[in-house]
Amino acid sequence: MAQKKAGGSSRNGRESFSKRLGIKKYNNNFVKKGSIIVKQNGSKFGIGKNVFFSKNFYIQSSIDGIVLINCKKKKTFVEVKNVYC
C-alpha cells in the first residue's frame, strides 16, 4: 500500500494574476496629459522629452501630444511630441 497522500488539490491555487505589462500607446498615437504609455517593471524603456516615471516605473505623458518611440545605443526611449507647435 502506498503511504503518500494524493496531492492534487493541496498543491493547486497559487497562480497569480498577470500584470498586463507592456506598451499601451504606440508610435503616432495621440495621448492626453497624464495617460499611461508603458507599464513596466524596472526601467526597460527610458524616458525622453515630455514624459515621466510614475510608480512602478510606469511611463506617463506630461503634455497632450503624439507618442514617439526611438532606439538609441541598444536602449528604447519614449517621448511625446507637442502637436500645437
Q: How many separate domains make up the residues?
A: 1
CATH architecture level-2 label: Beta Barrel
From the spread of the alpha carbons, the general shape counts as elongated
The portion of residues assigned to helices is under 10%
The residue-averaged pLDDT reads: 88
Total number of β-strand segments?
8
CATH topology value:
OB fold (Dihydrolipoamide Acetyltransferase, E2P)
End-to-end separation: 81 Å
Specify Rg, calculated over alpha carbons.
Answer: 20 Å
Helical stretch tally? 0
In the CATH hierarchy, what is the class?
Mainly Beta
Describe the strand arrangement of the main beta sheet, using strand numbers: 1-3-6-5
The H-and-E topology, N to C, reads as EEEEEEEE
SSE order and pairing:
Blueprint: E1 22-23, E2 30-31, E3 36-39, E4 45-47, E5 51-53, E6 59-61, E7 65-72, E8 75-82
Parallel strand pairs: 4-8
Antiparallel strand pairs: 1-3, 2-7, 3-6, 5-6, 7-8
Folded structure, characterized:
The N and C termini lie far apart (81 Å). This protein is mainly β. It is 0% helix and 39% strand. A hairpin with a 2-residue loop joins strand 7 and strand 8. It has one domain: OB fold (Dihydrolipoamide Acetyltransferase, E2P), CATH 2.40.50.100. It is built from no helices and eight strands. It has a four-stranded antiparallel beta sheet, with no helix packed on it. Strands 2-7-8-4 form a four-stranded mixed beta sheet, with no helix packed on it.
